[in-house]
Design brief:
With 225 residues, the protein is of the alpha+beta class. 41% of the residues lie in helices and 24% in strands. A seven-stranded antiparallel β-sheet has the order 2-7-4-5-9-11-10. A four-stranded antiparallel β-sheet has the order 1-8-3-6. A hairpin with a 6-residue loop joins strand 4 and strand 5. Helix 4 runs antiparallel to helix 5 and helix 5 crosses helix 8. The longest helix has 27 residues. It starts with a helix and ends with a helix.
Length: 225
């Protein structure tokens, strides 16, 4: 168990002795999910922090009528939507479904607060994740207001997925997407074709699949320079 914990993103850099201390202090719940079993639903209250410790899960965020969806695959070791543990709306924004036999480690919010208070490394790891997401939002807002269509598409997908997410797909009819972005169909298709020619995406009438999330980050980082 020590190796599992020390490999998790929010526990990195913590000593073996400190891990031993928190194992004796906090309750760790190990859960198993079969393929296609629901781990959590969008709107569920975030009362625990949940780590993927084995297997893979498919996370999907959708709007109220399911016409717009962004999905991604997260595999171990990873944490599901940690930024929603606190705040005014501590509810999961996504549905998570096991792709294969998947192990989840969950820790209650109260126990996790105790862990954060035992060592600065725990606290810094968590604050770094929150800070990265906050800074990502600022970059994205700037891209929406002044950026190219390519930058705006990149921001939408980056903001709705996590670092480490793979097999990312944006599912929506093309006519809804170019209306959403406020552009003509010809401009929208020209942008998608340019991104496909550079190996960033694949697409059809109802879906855009991302070959590499890092390539979208490169688009935003280049625009910020």
């Amino acid at each position: 168990m020590y190796e599992i914990l020390m490999g998790l993103p929010l526990f990195k850099g913590v000593s073996h002795e400190k891990i031993s201390e928190i194992v004796g202090m906090a309750k760790f719940h190990f859960l198993k999910y079969l393929p296609n079993e629901i781990i959590l639903n969008a709107g569920d209250q975030c009362t625990h922090i949940k780590f993927i410790i084995s297997g893979k899960a498919r996370l999907t965020i959708a709007n109220s009528d399911d016409r717009f969806k962004v999905s991604q695959t997260l595999e171990a070791p990873n944490v599901i939507a940690p930024e929603f543990l606190f705040g005014r709306a501590p509810f999961y924004p996504c549905t998570a479904e096991a792709i294969e036999a998947t192990g989840i480690l969950q820790i209650s919010k109260s126990d996790y607060i105790k862990i954060l208070n035992t060592d600065e490394i725990f606290l810094f790891n968590f604050l770094n994740i929150l800070s990265k997401n906050a800074q990502k939002a600022v970059d994205g807002i700037l891209a929406i207001t002044t950026g190219s269509l390519e930058e705006r598409i990149a921001f939408w997908i980056i903001s709705l997925t996590q670092r480490g997410g793979t097999d990312i797909a944006l599912t929506c009819r093309q006519r809804d997407l170019y209306s959403l972005f406020g552009v003509q169909r010809t401009s929208f298709l020209a942008t998608l074709e340019s991104m496909r020619n550079r190996g960033i995406i694949e697409y059809n009438n109802n879906e855009i699949r991302i070959n590499s999330r890092d390539s979208l980050l490169d688009i935003l980082n280049t625009a910020a320079e």
